[in-house]
Structure formats: structure tokens, C-alpha cells
Design a protein that fits this description.
Order of helices and strands: HEEEEEE
Number of helices: 1
Largest sheet: 4 strands, antiparallel
Distance between the termini: 45 Å
Radius of gyration: 15 Å
Strand order of the largest sheet: 3-4-5-6
Number of strands: 6
Number of domains: 1
Mean pLDDT: 90
Shape: flat
Low-confidence stretches: none
Length: 92
């Protein structure tokens, strides 16, 4: 699968997941986004396999990992919530 087709499928999956499972918590209203609201953070292709990390313009702390296994013609979709970020000073 070429990168353009893979990215399009990834964005469609993120849109589907977001629109069917997420709510704007402050007003308890369903979220409705399109593929133009999804962006690729990181993309890699190795041989027949692809992997992408994606996020959306919604400030909800979610990010998504999509992997394409070319040997099995399968895609795997994972949704994560960013829960902690800490700077750790290492010094010299």
C-alpha cells in the first residue's frame, strides 16, 4: 500500500473513531470532525509495512497509532490519551 492511500485510510479511521466515541465534555455534545481535522505526527514505511502516529485539532489529549501489516493485509488501530508529561533535568 502506498503512503498516500495509507494516510487517507488512517485519517478516515481516526475520524470514524472520534465521531462515534468522543464527546465535548464541557457541553456533552458529540464531536464531528473531518479528515482535514486530522494530521500526521510521524510516518514510517518499512518494506510492505506502514505505521503512523496521528492527532486531531481537538484539544483532548488523544493520539492514534495505525499500523498496516502488509504480510497479512491487516490494519491495527490504537487510541491513546496523553496523561502525563514531565521534564527531567539530566545535567551534563
Amino acid at each position: 500500500m502506498d503512503n498516500d492511500k495509507f494516510i487517507q485510510l488512517c485519517k478516515e479511521k481516526v475520524v470514524d473513531y472520534t465521531n462515534t466515541t468522543m464527546n465535548l465534555s464541557s457541553i456533552n455534545k458529540p464531536v464531528h470532525i473531518s479528515t482535514s481535522d486530522v494530521y500526521v505526527v510521524w510516518l514510517n514505511r518499512t518494506l510492505q509495512n506502514n505505521k503512523a502516529l496521528l492527532s486531531t485539532t481537538i484539544e483532548d489529549g488523544m493520539y492514534y497509532e495505525v499500523t498496516y501489516n502488509g504480510d497479512k493485509s491487516e490494519m491495527y488501530f490504537d487510541a491513546y490519551k496523553h496523561v502525563h508529561n514531565e521534564a527531567i533535568e539530566l545535567g551534563d
